Structures are given as structure tokens and as C-alpha cells.
Amino acid sequence: MVTVALVGPDGAGKSTVAKRVVATLPFPSYYIYMGVNLESGSTMLPTTRLALAVKRSRGGSGEMTPQTAEPSAIDAGSAAPVRRRRGPLRSLRAGLRMANWLAEEWFRLGIATFHERRGQVVVFDRHFFCDYYAYDVVDRRPGRSLASRVHGTNLRRLYPKPDLVIMLDAPAEVFFARKGEGTVESLERRRQEYLAQADLFRRFVVVDARQPTEAVVADVRERIAEFVRGAPVRTMAALPDDRA
User: Fold this and answer.
1) Which domain holds residue 163?
2) Residue 226 contacts residue 163 (beta carbons within 8 Å)
3) 131 closest CA partner among 79, 183, 176, 203
4) What is the CATH number of the domain that holds 122?
5) Burial of residue 118 (number of CB atoms within 10 Å: 0-12, 13-18, 19+)
6) pLDDT averaged over every residue in the chain
7) Around 90, how many Cα atoms within 13 Å sit in the side-chain half-sphere?
8) Cα 28 to Cα 160, 205, 241, distances in angstroms
9) In the prediction, which pLDDT does 175 show?
């Protein structure tokens, strides 16, 4: 049927809203997590599961990413390319890590495509293209790593975009108050990076995430239903109070 991605800075409520929307849509639907924190989802390649187990055994986190930018920094809006001096062994490990991550991204897309072709609305909790757009897809800073260039090329030229993108938006102060991660400045920068992607998609919708959760869920559900039924989808480029 169609694919829908819910995006927004950390603290927007993406996972909560996506799961509740899938449970209440009037169409067959399927939820899939498309972010870097693998502890938030169960869908992953066996090789990724093994690498994650090894990382945990060494005291690492549940995040597995291409070696381009730190995932926690991306969520907080202050990501920067990871640059480390590498010998041959470290370079080999980095190459294997990148290859596995690309396979992981395509694996999750394959699952989504399977359910879409069965006539289901696939709801993405986050999306790799949106999350890495500012850092790997369009970043042209000198000294950018090979991993970042390869990852960006894959997302820009090959990786399919969602049919509908719904951004859960609010002032950066709201996101910071909810989770206390990053800074207001970095969250605002991240917010603007998402808003700047509005012209890249078939349809990009902004929903006010300041509303109570159930109101946000109802709003998102209505926008998806409008899109599936072919009706005009109500949109706004940003929150009304941002137009001052």
C-alpha cells in the first residue's frame, strides 16, 4: 500500500505515537523501527545481533551504526563525523562494520517492502534517510570519512524514500524538557534539519507534538488515512508560532 515515516528530534514521541497509530489505523498496518538503537526494536540481521552481543559483553550500548557520526549526537543534533587514526586492522573492522550496516538498512527495507506488497500501511519509526540526511547525504565538509561518503551515496541514490513523512514538531525547549538530552540549541538545529527536508518527499506533513499524546496519535492517524484514501493531506511548513 504505502510507507509512512514518523521523524523528529529526540523527545518528539515517535515510538509511542507510531505504535499506537499502527494499533488503531483502519487499514492493515505494520510497524518497523528504522533507527540506530537496536534495543528499541527486534528486527535485525543475525550478524548485527552477534555484533551487538559482542559490544554488550564489552560494556557497550545497544546502538550499532555506520562509523560516520555518533548516534547519540545525531539524536541530540550535534553530530560530527567520527575521525580516528586507523591501522590496517582497524580499517578492516570499519569496512566490515559499514558493510553490515548497509545490509542492515536494506534488510529492514526488505521487510517493509514485503508488508507493503501485502497491502499493508508500513509505519516507520524514524527513517535512515531523514536521520542521516544532514550528516552523510548532503554534508560536503573536507576530510569526511569514506564510510560517510559511501553511506550517503547509498541513501541518496539507491535507498527508497517514504511515500509520506510526518514530522512531530515542537519548540526545542519542549523536547529538552521531556528528555533532558542534548541542549536546546542542538535540538533546535536538529529540528531545522528535519524541516529543511520538506521538499524532498512526495508529501511532508508537520504535526504539533505539543498536544496530548492521544491527540497527536489521532492527528497522525487522520493524516495517514487521508493520504491512503487519496484525499488532500493537510500540511504546514512549521508550527504557526514559528512564523513570527
Assistant:
1) 3-242
2) no
3) 79
4) 3.40.50.300
5) exposed
6) 85
7) 6
8) 21, 22, 36
9) 96
Largest CA distance in the chain: 56
179's enclosing H/E stretch is helix 172-179
Place of cell 524514524: 126
Residue matched to cell numbers 521538499: 199
How many distinct structural domains can be found in the chain?
1
* pLDDT tens digits for range 61-117: 666 666 554 444 555 555 544 455 556 776 677 778 888 889 999 999 999 999 999
Q: Which of 155, 163, 158 is nearest to 204 (CA)?
A: 163
Give residue 116's identity as a one-letter amino acid code: E
Q: Is 136 exposed, middle or buried (0-12, 13-18, 19+ CB in 10 A)?
A: buried
Q: Give yes or no for a contact between 184 and 215, defined as CB atoms under 8 angstroms apart.
A: no
Calpha distance 178→186 (Å, rounded)? 15
pLDDT band at residue 49 using 50, 70 and 90 as cut-offs: confident
Tell me the pTM: 0.84
Grid coordinates belonging to 243: 512564523
Cβ-contact 94, 101 below 8 angstroms? no
